[in-house]
């Protein structure tokens, strides 16, 4: 399934208020998307969960070990 690109990487700016928490492997995984809530919260979504029930749609971060990890470009 193809998905439109969304925000998915941490800010590289120096403003600490713009920082996204470190997500471990999800931070570098091609299957990770960062979603924002209406209240300004941010959530890491695992796209593998769409097709495989072994994965959690919104994994608890930081993720230290994951068999589905695939390094993003
Ligand atoms: S496959 Fe694993 S590392 Fe990749 S986004 Fe999902 S939970 Fe994170």
Our estimate of the beta-strand percent is 5-15%
N-to-C span: 19 Å
Which series of helices and strands comes N to C? EE
Helical residue percent?
under 10%
Give unreliable regions as ranges: 10-17
Question: What is the makeup of the main sheet?
Answer: 2 strands, antiparallel
Strands across the major sheet, in which order?
1-2
Structural class: mainly beta
Listed once per kind, the bound small molecules are: iron/sulfur cluster
Number of beta strands: 2
What would you say this structure looks like, in words?
This protein has 73 residues and is mostly beta strands. The protein has a domain at 20-65. It contains no helices and two strands. It is globular and about 30 Å long. The chain binds iron/sulfur cluster. Iron/sulfur cluster (SF4) binds at residues 25-26, 29, 31-32, 46, 48, 55, 59, 63, 66, 68-69.
Short description:
With 73 residues, the chain is mainly beta.
Q: What brief labels describe this structure?
A:
single chain, 73 residues, mainly beta, two-stranded antiparallel ribbon, binds iron/sulfur cluster
Describe the secondary-structure layout.
Blueprint: E1 32-36, E2 42-46
Antiparallel strand pairs: 1-2
This protein binds iron/sulfur cluster.
Iron/sulfur cluster (SF4) binds next to loops.
């Amino acid at each position: 399934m193809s998905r439109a690109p969304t925000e998915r990487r941490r800010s590289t700016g120096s403003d600490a208020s713009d920082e996204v928490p470190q997500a471990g492997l999800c931070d570098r995984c091609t299957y990770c998307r960062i979603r924002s809530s209406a209240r300004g919260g941010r959530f890491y979504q695992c796209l593998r969960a769409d097709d495989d029930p072994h994965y959690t749609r919104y994994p608890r971060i930081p993720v230290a070990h994951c068999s589905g990890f695939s390094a993003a470009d």
